[in-house]
Amino acid sequence: MLEEKKKAKKLDGEEVIAEFEELTRDAAAVQRETLRQILAENADTEYLRGLGLDGRTDPESFRSCVPLATHADLEPYIARIADGDTSGVLTAKPVTSISLSSGTTQGKRKYLPFNQELVKSTMQIYRTSYAFRNRAFPVESGKALQFIYGSRQFTTVGGLTATTATTNVYRSEEFVPTMRAIQSQCCTPDAVIFSAPDDFPQSLYCHLLCGLLFSGEVRIVSATFAHSVVLAFQTFERVWEELCNDIRHGVLSATRVTAPAVRRAVAALLAEPNPALADEVARKCAGLSNWYGVIPALFPNASSDTTPAACRSSPPSTASEGWIGANVEPENPPEAVTFTVLPNIGYFEFIPLKTGDGADAAADSCYAEAEPVGLTDLAVGEHYEVVMTTFAGLYRYRLGDVVKVAGFYNSTPKLQFVCRRNLMLTINIDKNSEQDLQLAVDSAAKILAAEKLEVVDYSSHADVSRDPGHYVIFWELNAEANRDVLQSCCDELDRAFTDPGYVGSRKAGAIAPLELRALQRGTFQKVLRHYLAQGAAVSQFKSPRCVPRSNSGVLQILNGNVVETVFSAAYD
């Protein structure tokens, strides 16, 4: 239950909202001041000294002197910090730890600087989200059933702890008192939250058990990502009888929970048999129709909250680089959720995006870019890539997230996440780009080469028509391959996606086995003809590497030319 470290008084939500109103009334002025603070504080850092700012802190000088940057541009500087360089490489204040991004390229996780300023902005996001949520859905004091999980840590050469940004936040001194102040004290012991990632099924089981033990006190059911709540209650459908048995006898399952530290922590909460609670849970489960309404049935005093704030700008993401905004309209349905930018937690720019023909940007578009614009210069309905400058040493950093402007709250924009610019395949928290797909195909193609076969062309699709979703890879080969060869290729494709979000989801059963569909010869020629019929030019044609569900024409061609289908056994 994230043990108490310091007391905190209950948060005054109306006071927080008043502060938010003041911040967003003149967002342009707040942005100028935020940039001034960042640049003044870090003027003597190696990175900024080399760019010719000479102490200037105005937006015009900043944009003219400091180039747009990607992680590759900053990676050498971050690597030096991780290796122990404390000379003020990117920030004047110390980098306290390293955050690891969940997205990877070529199996390599990105290192990002983490410091106390990111903790402060995270707490501001939490407080703001809570204030608006509590205004819309008032809750009394109680506990929170939070499906949150710590991540594995290691120490860099320079002695810094490296882990996910969320774990860095969970372990901060500010986290517990903030959770208490916003009435979100977790009902699960720390040992469960910070157990080894390989113990995820045990942690999930214990989250459910602790939630039931405190069911009368649970006021909030939440998770960083909505998918975690879905997965939790899909699991509950399978294990509820075992949970009732544990509660009835006051003894934790010896098969479901084996980690000693986790067993000790949860066993202390079980304490003694509670047949009355077990009977109540069983009665409620028996009364449900196809598990509809399971959360309000089990936790009648709770509200469901799965989108309290935007990690960066997208729900399937952690706050590795930094935060952008909070959900200040929690009454909106999930499909209409927006995140309102807090103008004091970073300096934000936005690259306008258009397709080649001037149409709105989309996930599979080839974008034409314009010069970045400021936070208050956005146009409603337009698409942009987010660029951020933070107190943690990222300057004009391209996030790669595409957002659409849904409107404004006072003078600050409300954003909707659209897609990742280079993200081809995703189902929940997994992130695989076109390059990741290429590497997977190259790896599996080595098996074909031994049989004197080769891939003529390929594509992919994230199939979410059934739950859990799974990746589908379409292959056109130069000759027929036997089923054993295709099976080996399929297994290798599945293993070759090394993104931690994908691997973890596959091991947890949150993503189903990858499917390889072998196509008739000439299938991609049919795809070409399909695009030509729509006015595309041969000179500009490129086979779509990931076909979204919305592209029904191409999916119909691919699915209509399948000659063999195999499913991966890589994680069996």
Concise summary:
37% of the residues lie in helices and 21% in strands. The chain has 572 residues and is α+β, with helices and mostly antiparallel strands. It has three domains: 16-115 and 309-420, no CATH class; 139-305, no CATH class; 424-567.
Structure report:
The chain starts with 12 loop residues before the first helix and ends in a 5-residue tail after the last strand. Helix 18 runs antiparallel to helix 19 (552-559). By secondary structure, the protein is of the alpha+beta class. The protein contains 19 helices and 22 strands. The strands form five sheets. Strands 9, 10, 11, 12, 13, 14, 15 and 16 form an eight-stranded antiparallel beta sheet that branches. The protein folds into three domains: 16-115 and 309-420, no CATH class; 139-305, no CATH class; 424-567. Helices cover 37% and strands 21% of the residues. InterPro entries: GH3, GH3_C, GH3_M. GO terms for molecular function: acid-amino acid ligase activity. Belongs to the IAA-amido conjugating enzyme family. Keywords: Ligase. Residues 435-549 form the GH3 C-terminal domain.
